[in-house]
Amino acid sequence: xxxxxxxxxxxxxxxxxxxxxxxxxxxxxxxxxxxxxxxxxxxxxxxxxxxxxxxxxxxxxxxxxxxxxxxxxxxxxxxxxxxxxxxxxxxxxxxxxxxxxxxxxxxxxxxxxxxxxxxxxxxxxxxxxxxxxxxxxxxxxxxxxxxxxxxxxxxxxxxxxxxxxxxxxxxxxxxxxxxxxxxxxxxxxxxxxxxxxxxxxxxxxxxxxxxxxxxxxxxxxxxxxxxxxxxxxxxxxxxxxxxxxxxxxxxxxxxxxxxxxxxxxxxxxxxxxxxxxxxxxxxxxxxxxxxxxxxxxxxxxxxxxxxxxxxxxxxxxxxxxxxxxxxxxxxxxxxxxxxxxxxxxxxxxxxxxxxxxxxxxxxxxxxxxxxxxxxxxxxxxxxxxxxxxxxxxxxxxxxxxxxxxxxxxxxxxxxxxxxxxxxxxxxxxxxxxxxxxxxxxxxxxxxxxxxxxxxxxxxxxxxxxxxxxxxxxxxxxxxxxxxxxxxxxxxxxxxxxxxxxxxxxxxxxxxxxxxxxxxxxxxxxxxxxxxxxxxxxxxxxxxxxxxxxxxxxxxxxxxxxxxxxxxxxxxxxxxxxxxxxxxxxxxxxxxxxxxxxxxxxxxxxxxxxxxxxxxxxxxxxxxxxxxxxxxxxxxxx
Length: 637
Description:
By secondary structure, the protein is an alpha+beta fold. It is built from 19 helices and 28 strands. The chain has five domains: about 5-140, no CATH class; about 145-190, no CATH class; about 215-285, Dna Ligase, domain 1, CATH 3.30.1490; about 290-465, 2-Layer Sandwich (D-amino Acid Aminotransferase, Chain A, domain 1); about 475-635. The strands form six sheets. A nine-stranded mixed sheet has the order 23-22-21-24-20-25-26-27-28, with helices on both faces. Strands 17-14-13-18-19 form a five-stranded antiparallel sheet. The relative contact order is 0.10.
């Protein structure tokens, strides 16, 4: 066969539903020459890599390309991408596919194109290497963080609208007055001083001690002399860690001598310098022995507990510690991706030092079943192993966690404790709170190595949006393809009268964004929609979408409760597609002798039909007809 040609071009992205699909999409043109339009030439390779494609293997290459691209875009991480469309465009095809990160999605498109070219032309293509590169790119993307991805996914699978706000570098779940904005597990409703307070480990320790909760005695130090005094006062063994640290970085436990203490202190300074943050002191604490646990509360309620043990290897009598680490790192559970439960075990300086303390080196060969602990700290980011022990918590420990949380205005609170046995009450001793954290990671609870999952992202969505997240995250939305200022202001008057002018009504009109009847600003259509729904006081939204806006910018918002269509063209008819269940469709058509017909439909059943003598009377007639339905909408959410 002569060499065949594929090419992709004319990329365009939509941040929300659009003409092609009802989700954010990247759209591009696909050229396939005549010699490769038959999809069967790709069958063997594609089905080998993605067996699911064999169930409904397309006959034409254009459809196979889009289907395969969707599988590639999931990156073997089970990402929630499910929608695509293929539309004829003269000699080429227009492909639209749901996406998360624009750059990563483009690379997936080029990857799939290059792979298909290689298959068709019989040339080499290093699928594994290139696919791994894509996965790493996603890990470094905005959505690659396991906690933020799981929170975005938790919203999407519950039909909660989720958008990224580029100007603010944070996400928004929900619309208007129902919204929550944030990054990771810190949200705009959290108290900024309480969130900041938890970053100061020394002050948190004083607070916990004041409340009568078990926490090790400690001192904050800035100099070698202060370290010497603090260690002398506390005694050995002790722990030294950064006052403003995270993820176990710079933490040294089990210190048994002054030289070790000095080295640990220097390490806290080094970690701050390498992280580009100011050194705010080192905390010297008594050493407490026991297993590391992360207790989690959401909205002040206990939801999860994870037991973490330091990275370890188990001997087989023939392999060295290094070889055992390498073998462990090859396990799927340690894939070290945005969706894997565990990270890789890294053989670094800290590990060398800890092995040395045990009289070992990486070349040591452990006996059969001999366990070698590799680190002092149990953090997952440091290779630690996680066990879900949520149901094993003693009731006293649950109450303790909730009592701590009630003092802090934060959504998610992580409480790190060392305990010999979490099934025993903290009052029995051998139990100490090491630190508390606002904005804790939650993916570790969703995907522990052992013991089953706790759907913490789902708990956060339920906390924010009540027992019905889909309804609890939305406000009423009315859209149309021809909405006059007179009609929009009339709707506003009806609603304000019903609420005694105690509401925020927002609209996107031909000339920009309005709040109540006041002009606010004008930008591109999608930016106008974003401004509208970003308003944290917004009660009700009306938007005019015309053909050009739909083609050029999409609709930004997911779904609407009422659509008003006045002789719509092909593009404007897609507004029907995104009508929510039980929504109302209003159709305005011109009949004989200039008579206009207004037809209301709900669930494909006619609920109202009226005739109007001329076009000038349509707005007044509409307001009269729609009044009860608008009031119904006002109370829907």
